[in-house]
Amino acid sequence: MITKEKIESLISEKLEGTDFFIVSIDISPKNKILVEIDGDNGFPINECINFSRQIENNLDREEEDFSLEVSSPGLNKPLRLTRQFLKNIDKSVVAKTTEGEKITGKLLSASDEKIVIQTSRKERLEKKKKKVEITEDIELLRENILETKLVIEF
Questions:
Q1: What's the total number of domains in the chain?
Q2: Which end of the chain is more exposed for a tag (fewer CB within 10 A), N or C?
Q3: Using CB atoms within 10 A of its CB, is residue 76 exposed (0-12), middle (13-18) or buried (19+)?
Q4: pTM of full prediction above 0.90
């Protein structure tokens, strides 16, 4: 049987000395292997090919058949690891909380325990004709976040 540990051991030596890291390894009961790898400076397509070959060349289809997909997490995928949050500091994100709130703003900081998002809104203050932009830093505990995704801006 193909295990996560086996796949992780096959690519761990290739990860050494790079800024790449494993985001997830999923293996279905029918041996469909899905590997997501990211990098502090992105994960180019040619690296997907290299890591795919590294895995495929070290597994025997005669012994056990499998399908393999190596990719980087897409823009539509939530951030899961602290390292992913850290590489996206100063980018726009939307966080969905366990209370059902959606908080959109710039990711200011991240740790294993919490993230800080800077939000801004326009408000009309008393005795003022124009709306004033109000910025607020919101601290969210990671345990209270359902998912955090990058906001795609054009």
A1: 2
A2: C
A3: exposed
A4: no
